Amino acid sequence: MKISHFLIGLILFGTLVNAQESPLVNIEAYGGTYAYDVKYATDDNFLKTTVYDCVQCLLLPEIAEAIAAANHDFCELGYKIQFFDCYRPLSVQKKMWAIYPNPSYVGNPYKSGSIHNRGAAIDMTIVKLDGTPLDMGSDYDHFGKEAHIDHPHNDTVKANRKLLWDVMKKNGFSPIRTEWWHFNYDAKNYGLKVLDIDFDCTK
């Protein structure tokens, strides 16, 4: 009888843990049209290896709502969001750190980790509604000065970045100094739990 109670306790505990650790939603649930170029689901990335099993953009609900609102604003201007990365499981963060242990570009998973691990950050750009990319001055995950938000560029790049940042800031996001494509949701930068929930690639 003690064993039965113990097993039942484990099952109930597991159910509660799963319920508590599944706060993420798929951006597709909020409607809208998006483009995807998730490099980590391929080996075409700075790691030179695939670390995602499928392409999904999962976020905390508040962040997903803000992204949907930003995408609506972009669509009104003739553009749409193209995702590079959204939520990132802690297990993937550890793989990335093992390959590229540089805290300037990869959050240390054994310390504070990344806002990506909390479902409150995205890597993105904008493209025209027909999918035509805009010149942002560097490729995604370019670890050089050209990717810095204060790097001098030509007028076209400056205008494209300003458009990107103005709409994202309007909807509660801010870029970081070294990556023009990375946006943290300002209201959710602190106090969030690091998550290690695998992608459900059946959905």
UniProtKB/TrEMBL annotation:
Transition state stabilizer (site feature) positions: R88
Key word Transcription regulation present: no
Catalytically driven reaction(s): D-alanyl-D-alanine + H2O = 2 D-alanine
Name this polypeptide is given: D-alanyl-D-alanine dipeptidase
Cofactor binding notes: Binds 1 zinc ion per subunit.
Enzyme class: hydrolase
EC number(s) from the headed UniProt entry: 3.4.13.22
Alphabetized Pfam families for the sequence: Peptidase_M15
The species this protein was found in: Dokdonia ponticola
SUPFAM superfamilies reported in the protein's UniProt record: Hedgehog/DD-peptidase
Alphabetized UniProt keyword annotations: Cell wall biogenesis/degradation, Dipeptidase, Hydrolase, Metal-binding, Metalloprotease, Protease, Zinc
Active-site residues (renumbered): E179
UniProt cross-references to PANTHER family, sorted A to Z: D-ALANYL-D-ALANINE DIPEPTIDASE
Cofactor section: Zn(2+)
Listed CDD domains: D-Ala-D-Ala_dipeptidase_Aad
Record family assignment: Belongs to the peptidase M15D family.
Free-text function comment from the UniProt entry: Catalyzes hydrolysis of the D-alanyl-D-alanine dipeptide.
Binding of Zn(2+), residues: H116, D123, H182
